[in-house]
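hiii, so i know i said id send this last week but things got crazy w the move. better late than never?? heres the sequnce for the chain we talked about at the cafe, plus the structure i predicted for it. fair warning i was half asleep when i ran it
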Amino acid sequence: MRGRNVDPYKRVTSREYISAYDTKEDNTVRLLNSKPSWQRSFLYVLVASLSSFSYGYHLGVVNETLESISTDLGFRGSTMAEGLVVSTCLGGAFVGSLFCGWIADGVGRRRGFQLCALPMIIGASMSATSKSLWGMLLGRLFVGTGMGLSPPIASLYVAEVSPAAVRGTFGSISPIATCLGLMSALFIGLPANKIMGWWRICFWVSAIPAAALALLMEFCAESPHWLFKRGRSIEAEAAFEKLLGGIHVKSAMAELSKSEKGDESNTVKLSELLYGRYFRVMFIGCTLFALQQLSGINAVFYFSSAIFKSFDVSSQIGNTCVGICNLLGSILAMILMDKLGRKVLLLWSFLGMAVSMGLQVIAASSFASGSGAMYLSVGGMLMFVLTFSLGAGPVPGLLMSEILPGNIRAKAISLCLTIHWVVLSCVILNFEIAYAFV
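okay and structure toks below
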């Protein structure tokens, strides 16, 4: 008897009755032990990745357009002014990142996404319509605030709405979206040096994904972790039903209740994060993000066109290769994240970057010259981008969202990313000074 119910009024043997009962029980256990479907939460993760797409787009929007911007706004030839256009958004990102944890815990992840989209839309519009350097800098400052808000909220939201079995894979979607945003900015900016005023189009385009994020988030599920911490258990159950399916709600709520058990209220003192009982995990997070930026990856993204021109390589070809390597590494990370683990990818990523730096050192030495030096240098840079996107790029944000206790997660990631922006500002400033003297 294959799963058929036994008629209670029909005489059957004891073996048949027991077999039917056991089959029904096995089916129930198998259903309860099945893994939640990834399709339910995938759509919400895609919507959240629009914030990463906007982040990547704003990273690269001044790469191809900086020369035409400086010509139109009257500061061509001023290295300081050009550097300010590139780096002013970093100041805004520092401010946004500093307060992001408190915003995410106060208004929730969905409203946090909408708040980070708002300054991106305003800043993009101000930059697109600016008539002077100061208007451009103010627009970049607004955009930077949104850029500082989006990465912590994206890391939190993706980790909290994804089923455990695919959390690493879903966590790698954000870096892929960042890469696609960066590539889009580079490709859309290609006609900037040929078509007068094209750079304004590039900034108008950047408002589209931010507006889509603000609109679509209205229809997305809120993080059940945040709802549970706010004492809204019924809404948390409804969110889990959207994300995992009704059969998994009770087990998910039980696991959430167990993981949050013993956590104090959301009021965590700053001293506890900086030198209290959470110092060790905070030190790990800050170190990972600092090393991520000390590698110099964003200097490549900001100034790749200038770097390729110094080797007489077309910036279009060079930026295309950089984008392909970044995308390929991000896709490999998505495939391998849940198979090899975070630690393995992180170690191999930093090892690969060390090897690529060695190639560039050899290219700059007397051991290589002419075309050999060019191939070693450019090849080393492309290998650097590939290996970075394989682990050092996607792992820190995902790892921190997984190892941090729930009661400090948002604020701790916010502070770790504040260190990220400080170190990035120092790297970009040093690169600008070195480039000015070349």
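btw The domain at 38-231+238-244+252-258 is CATH 1.20.1250.20 (Growth Hormone; Chain: A;). thought thatd interest u
miss u guys!!
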